[in-house]
Amino acid sequence: MTDTAAVSMKFHPQPQGGTPTPWAFPAPERGALPNGLTVLRCHRPGQQVVAVEVFLAAPLEAEPTGLDGVATIMARAFSEGTDKHSAEEFAAELERCGATLDAYADHPGVRVSLEVPVSRLPKALGLLADALRAPGFTDSEIERLVANRLDEIPHETANPSRRAAKQLSKELFPATSRMSRPRQGTEETVERIDSAAVKSFYAAHVRPATATAVVVGDLEGTDLDAILADTLGAWKGDTAEPRPVPPVTADDTGRVVIVDRPGAVQTQLLIGRIGPDRHDRVWPAQVLGTYCLGGTLTSRLDRVLREEKGYTYGVRAFGQVLRSAADGTGAAMLAISGSVDTESTGPAVEDLWKVLRTLAAEGLTDAERDVAVQNLVGVAPLKYETAAAVAGTLADQVEQHLPDDFQAQLYARLAETGTVEATAAVVSAFPGDRLVTILVGDASQIEEPVRALGIGDVKVVAG
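and the corresponding structure tokens:
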């Protein structure tokens, strides 16, 4: 064996991180086409897949009496053929572009979403424009969509979380309010929908003057003005006065409704009420406080119900805007949802209320507030890496009548919100005596334990 010479190694300096680049939610450029269509565009370098969101001011409350669901059928029919292409041809043309087209209806209106490689944007926008300008709405396609929707309803009824949501809406809102009824209609209303009803709803509420298109992606070298003029700019329609929006009213008197599912081994919980929307100054603090309560695995609710007691795989608290208006007539659903095994239903609900009472008595901690800010604000750049995420949020702002810089300002306000302010907001959002509790489960097993808690009158309805 020979001696080996000592090996000398040269160590290079360890690379150091650079100065963090400040981030803010992208600011769009706002404009309008001669036909009245409002356009928001946002250049995102490197995003070769362009996202387009079109908001149509066709709210669910505009649906004719007895035709709940016609907005949903209309939205789904936008991709089922035009005056130029049959349904099959339209789908094939989208596929050739590498594009996807989706649409849905909700309380504020109808949203149509397109994603396509930027190199195919002119062709795809032309197809989208055709769908909005001259949809086919043929008898056969509408009949098929109605049949599909009727097939979906029994499955939704069988789903505990969907059944709970349906019951909560029914309990909170007066029967005369569209919000009290399923967004996509019931069997009774959907089966009445035909092509004439869809065409009538389209003619009454879909026009460029009351619509907004959001275009997000890498637009470098793309003459977007020319593309828009040749596509969405060819969409014609008259003007219309803004539709009056009735105020949202709700009854959140504390009570419990058990939707009976005999033999169920789990109970689905949905606890909610109506609260401020994004126009209210309390919104940032409410978002922060609600996240501390039930926004993540480290939240108060999960820490007690999941980690300490083992009742559930997870419980979440959230705020979801139903309809937003600058004059204060909008509202958001503030809710807590999760599921527990049947035997643990009473103890789980009791401990949930204890969490709310403790929160009101002791407040949030600075550590909880700091974690929430980091999770909400710190990860925002990752959340909005895709063009579709940016376009979706900008379209949300449009339909909720918010300024274009709302999301950017929200993150700044979240970072500035203190622990005391966040505590006050979440305690106000979830007062123990003003919550409607929906339990989908076996009433014979859970009624008495829940009734003994004294959190409100208890009634049982058929599942």
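(Above: one complete record from the training split.) Residues 373 and 415 are 6 Å apart (CA to CA).
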